[in-house]
Input
Amino acid sequence: MMIYKFRMLSESNEEFIRDYEISVSASFRDFYTLIHETVDLQGNELSSFFVCDSEWNRRTEVTLMDMEDGEEEVSESVRLVMDQVKLVDMMNEPRQRMIYEYDFLNPKTFYLELKDTIKATEGINYPVCTFSVGEAIGKAATEQEDELFDELEITELDKLLDDLGGEIQGGDEPEDNLF
Output
């Protein structure tokens, strides 16, 4: 059995690295599952792999599910479904590149590069993550998102208070023996 060796990097954290070994006959869905087992992603958001050229230009999209609405549309890019496509069908160049995007509303982008094709090692249960460093989203990015959320909450609360005519007034103390 032949094995692909991939390296994955995160767009939002330069300290993040994952190295994967996976069978050439595995599906993109198998790779998706491996990534979600080794990266802190919830697994309930839409995602896609984009097979790229050597300059990271997206050529072919492999989606988690079929999102076509039945209408034929002429497009320069081809879209396929993860369950139906094997890695070997798309990995046709040495050092082939892919982009993996997770959660299109709050995108997390990962860059994958095929590093090597090797013979399977006896006793190893593939697919496997062989190297793991860092978190997918850097601490600075998370702190920045938290600050923006806090500012939004305060701004919305201030607006609500202004609409109500000032401060929230405390009422009478609740009675202890209502029942």
User: Anything to note?
Assistant: Residues 2-137 form a domain with the Structural Genomics Hypothetical 15.5 Kd Protein In mrcA-pckA Intergenic Region; Chain A fold (CATH 3.10.290.30).
